[in-house]
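Troubleshooting: if your tokenizer reports a length mismatch, compare your output against this known-good record of 243 residues.
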Amino acid sequence: MTATDKVYKLLIGNPLSYTLASRNQQRFPLMWYDEKKNQNRALRYSVNQKSPFEDEQDGNAILEPIIFEDGFLNVPRTNPVLQAFLHYHPLNQKIFVEIDEEKEAYDEVSDINIEIDALVEARKLSIEQIETLTRVMFGKDPSIFTTAELKRDILVFAKNDPRGFINILNDPELQFQSKVILFFEKNLLTFRNNNKEIWFNTPTNKKKMISVPFGEDPHYIAAGYLSSDEGIDSLKMLEASIL
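Known-good structure output:
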């Protein structure tokens, strides 16, 4: 592999100066577990050694501080020992990371593509699908909003949280959850006893359907019951009531 210059950045802001621990001490252990040797090996950065491990260094180690300036540290390809030391350092990925411009560009392109995909899918939605998402995602009754308001809210959500939006679109339970919320909107199901109970409210059925356990989402509890073998007949009755 061709040696390259590397740049590292702090994950704790951009202080004017930050000195990284560069040697193993009892008070601040600096160890790396070697799987092959099945042992912890002490790390030490020395400018005149060929290895970042103390057990591979001689007794004439010259130590130098490792200092991040304004949150960054540049390490040229001519200093492979420091690059290796930083690779094995236990604070790598915790306090600092290596800047990988290619990976960052790839991740950024991936994020942009996901946002575009989410916005395209949002624009393709029918008004019925938008109403479904409004009920499930926002817990709102879509009938009290204009079509423009509904479309705007969906597009804004898709832009701000494209991954979450796409995951919701791919959720097979989406339509069913929306249907259950619609039952409440149509007043076919109602809450009683401070939302601790769900009751039927159809012309032919005014009985209690189910109790809501403390701390649970009542819509989730209702959906669980109506999708069960016990609740399937009730589901058919409610569906018939909104046709």
